[in-house]
Specification:
It contains 16 helices and 13 strands. By secondary structure, the chain is α/β, with parallel strands linked by helices. The strands form two sheets. The chain has a seven-stranded parallel beta sheet. Strands 10-9-8-11-12-13 form a six-stranded parallel beta sheet, sandwiched between helices. The longest helix is centred in the middle third of the chain and has 17 residues, at about 130-145. The two termini are about 20 Å apart. The relative contact order is 0.12.
């Protein structure tokens, strides 16, 4: 008898968040590749999904099963516990999107597992849209009632979520990773030219409107470092260029040195990291630091604000700066950046540490843990 793992791939079908879409796709691919003997993987998607495109994104799926509802209506239905047409079975969601309703795990072998990647809904609610905030808060409450397990990427986030809802022993830690095969492409120079980016820069990621990203702190750190290098900011929401330019000006960085870009697809992003001399991660938010993991994977020196998540993920793969005051933190990060870029040996040392740490993150390993989790349930 074949056991079927049904994976929610709404983010792959209808992306609303680039990181969640990439994580969903990469985990699904790894689950298919690592499926134990006698198991298979099917996808659950919103109504009207292009099944052929989904199969191209995740080859090897045993089936693609649409919900009765399009994505927006599906989101509302799962929050209310209303019928969705998804059905039961062994369901794994790389996000909080799942039919969290009463089910019989003992007799019918039904399981529902969801995933939480950050704590913004509780620690920085003003940074989320009203819809996203209500969704996350409603779904974590439903998870407390009906989820068989809740996956989080770090022990730090596990502790934070445990302080929000009582999940008992149901919290499981399974980290994410950079995309499978993530590497600087052979045509990196050409890609950067197409993106109109310079060679050799300090890299940051984030939004001016998400204060918890720490972008103002990071830009101030570059200014205080006294290094005359270009600064590239990626993952900036569309239209935020003026706001980020204002942050840079306030920090003392001339606009001529600043290059602001949005989210990139995988290989363009790898090409950007290929020219980064250092990656600054000034956020202290409890969340999985996707771009820091990218930097570690590619051996880019990482300088990060000390937080529980960074201590766990970056660990000894980068330099952590432990300051709680933003002004002091920017000064300390600036000093660390100046030191890291002050000599070839210092930069090479941090690059080696980063690459060593980057090997700790793997979607194949994450998929293996997901299979073991469902087997344990």
């Amino acid at each position: 008898m074949t056991a079927t793992l049904r994976v929610m791939l709404d983010q792959v079908a209808v992306p609303t968040d680039n990181d969640l879409a990439e994580a969903s796709r990469e985990l699904a691919r790894a689950l298919v590749a690592g499926a134990p003997s006698g198991t298979e993987v099917e996808a659950i998607v919103p109504a009207q999904t292009d099944a052929a495109a989904l199969r191209a994104a995740v080859p090897g799926l045993a089936g693609v099963h649409p919900s009765a509802l399009p994505r927006r209506e599906l989101s509302v239905a799962v929050q209310l516990g209303a019928p969705t047409g998804i059905g039961a079975g062994m369901i794994h969601s790389p996000t909080l999107m799942a039919p969290l309703v009463r089910h019989d795990r003992v007799h019918n072998h039904d399981q529902t597992v969801v995933t939480v990647w950050d704590s913004r809904a509780w620690d920085a609610p003003g940074e989320l849209s009203r819809g996203a905030l209500s969704f996350q808060r409603a779904m974590i409450k439903r998870a407390a009632k009906h989820a068989d397990a809740v996956v989080v990427p770090t022990h730090a986030l596990a502790r934070r979520i445990a302080g929000v809802v009582n999940l008992g022993e149901r919290i499981r830690v399974i980290p994410g990773a950079a995309p499978l095969g993530f590497a600087v492409p052979n045509d990196e120079v050409g890609r950067r030219r197409e993106l109109d980016l310079p060679e050799g820069f300090v890299l940051l990621a984030g939004s001016a409107s998400r204060v918890s990203d720490g972008l103002a702190v990071g830009l101030a750190a570059v200014a205080r470092a006294g290094v005359d290098l270009p600064v590239v900011v990626i993952d900036a929401p569309e239209g935020e260029e003026p706001a980020i330019a204002d942050l840079a000006e306030a920090a003392g960085l001339p606009e001529r040195r600043l290059h602001v870009r949005g989210a990139f697809e995988t290989w363009d992003r790898a090409a950007v990291f290929g020219a980064a001399l250092a990656f600054l991660a000034p956020s202290r938010r409890e969340a999985f630091p996707w771009r820091a993991v990218d930097a570690l994977t590619l051996g880019v020196p990482v300088l990060a604000a000390a937080s529980d998540s960074h201590a766990e993920v970056v660990s000894d793969g980068g330099q952590l700066v432990d300051e709680t005051d933003d002004a002091v933190l920017s000064e300390a990060l600036g000093s660390a950046l100046a030191e890291a870029l002050g000599s070839v040996s210092a930069a090479e040392r941090l690059g080696v540490l980063a690459a060593d740490r980057g090997r700790a993150f793997s979607w194949a390993e994450a998929a293996d843990k997901v299979w073991h989790l469902h087997a344990d349930l």
